[in-house]
Amino acid sequence: MDTTVAREKLSKRRAEILETAVIKTDSVSNKDERIDEIVPAQVESKLTQNRVNELRAIDRALKRIDSGTYGTCRGCGENIEEARLNAKLEAERCVGCEEKRESPIMAPAKRPQYQAFSGRSMLH
Ligand SMILES: [Zn+2]
């Protein structure tokens, strides 16, 4: 993944999200307000949680581009698949690590409460 291209796309996406927040809620009186002058907290309160999460993920991705760790999996430290980054520019983990994260039940060692409340012996 070319980080110059990634940065461009992420910045554009970020601006789009902020723009929808401003257009949706701001009154006529401050329509001339520039996006970058708006306090992030104010913008966040006007965005849905999904948008806020996306915005934060984009910000983290931009920071990773700056620090040179963009495209490196936070889970295993390997390079994130190119196809995955193309589909989700702000991806922080490779496919394998993301699957493990999204399915904690597949890793019972880390979630002992599932074993404690399985009740398997009671059912049979
Ligand atoms: Zn990984």
TrEMBL record:
The keyword NADP does not apply. It comes from the Bacteria. Keywords: Metal-binding, Zinc, Zinc-finger. SUPFAM superfamilies: Glucocorticoid receptor-like (DNA-binding domain). Residues 68-102 form the Zinc finger DksA/TraR C4-type domain. InterPro entries: Znf_DskA_TraR. The keyword rRNA-binding does not apply. GO terms for molecular function: zinc ion binding. A zinc finger (dksA C4-type) spans 73-97. PANTHER family: RNA POLYMERASE-BINDING TRANSCRIPTION FACTOR DKSA-RELATED (PTHR33823). This is Zinc finger DksA/TraR C4-type domain-containing protein.
